[in-house]
Amino acid sequence: MADRIITEVDELKAVTHPLRVRMLGALRADGPATATELARRFETDTGTTSYHLRKLAHYGFVEEAEQRDARERRWQASQPTTTWDDAALAATAAGRAAMSVMRRHQLAAIERAVSAYEAAQTDLPPEWVAASGMSDVRARLTARSLRELEERVEALVEELAAADADDPAARTVLLHFGGFPRIDPAGWADVADES
């Protein structure tokens, strides 16, 4: 299953709906599900989840999964991840708006993950608490180096995940990577960088 790289605004807009993006994430994280199972999980009705699953299927984000019996229709994600071509989509106002919505969805997902972690932190083994965390790093890089950094991080994640695949101590972890050029607020150009 190959990753999905979106270059068209309509495709990206198809997943900007809050329920669709969460359903797609759930199918990727937890595997195939029916519209009824997703409706229970997201506290909505089956008609709503069915409609949104059909929209996701129309754009190739989900597909029918192997059915356990003839009475159900199970869905699965068509790709392990979805990314988008920032340069292609940034060429139009609609593309920039859709990317902005998706970034906000990503930030909301990080907020949910951090909240869930904090709620469960006292029940986690000390080694998981010690290994967990967030940081922010500043570095002077070229656009080429930032792209290379992202590619190296992804390669390292794949390498370590493959090495830990059969280890019973391994758990699914959420990793978030973002790199943006720092944009100084107007009037701050003369203030020394304190980073």
TrEMBL record:
Coiled coil: 139-166
Domain HTH arsR-type: 10-90
Short name of any one Pfam family annotated for the protein: HTH_20
Keywords noted in UniProt: Coiled coil
Bilayer-spanning residue ranges: none
SMART domains: HTH_ARSR
Protein name: Transcriptional regulator
Organism placement in taxonomy: Bacteria, Bacillati, Actinomycetota, Actinomycetes, Micromonosporales
